[in-house]
Amino acid sequence: MSSKRERNDRKKAEKPSFKGRSDKPRERGRGPNPAASPTSDSRERPARTSDRSRADGDNFVWGRHPVLAALANPARKGMGRLMVTADRAEELERDRLTHGHRIEVVDGPALTRMLPAGAVHQGMVFKVQPLEGVALEDIADPTPNPGEGGVIVMLDQLTDPQNVGAIFRSALAFGAKGIVVQERHSPALAGALAKASAGATERLPCARVTNLSRALERLADLGWRAVGLDGSAEQTLEQALDAQPTVLVMGSEGDGIRRLVAEHCDALARIPMPGGFESLNVSNAAAISLYECVRAQRRD
User: Which CATH entry fits the domain spanning 136-299: 3.40.50.1100, 3.40.50.1000, 3.40.1280.10, 3.10.100.10?
Assistant: First the structure.
């Protein structure tokens, strides 16, 4: 798959102040001033380094499935630092899963210290830059055969990595051609998002665009029909969907699809919920919508 820009080139402390400091000389080694004691200063530095690395989760992929998918991604060839525990190193070498990446054996606690709090690495960490994305046309033009259909998922200001990662996972499972997000309002394709996607971010193309409304105009020119999810819409998804190539537009849980983006949709549709509890998590709504979209295209 071609790309009009590099996929792996995206990069995404305040010092303590001591108010009310006394002019009285301090006894060496006591008090909050780290400059007063070289020994105290040396003890503080590792903590600051650890905090800095923990905050930089977007530079890491962790967990067995995400790391294996990243290693197998041709866009990652020759990039990154692969750090695994001894038993994982044996597995990677035995099953020839490194794809040319050199293994560094690191113990589990050391891997934990590199990552954000709560990250479950399963003995595998890959330090690498987030994927940059592909051009919109790489996803949408052309569809394989006239009348074959196809699905693209567009995310309007979804920022939670867990939700976005879960949507990547569902989109890949249902055969979507790719994901479209807005550059300024979307998380990096690494870290917690990559973990939640179980490796789908490495296999499903993602286009990062400047303006979603203009992207919908371009997709319309390429033969795609946009259906936006809106809980107050008159039509249900079943009524709105057909066999045409379809862009499913999902908004944030709080605000939904923005007005201008909604105006660029060909139809707005809701998921009928007869249970009376009309509040689905956006990743669950995306999975249901993808299923309905694929079913409509097969039916027609």
Answer: 3.40.1280.10
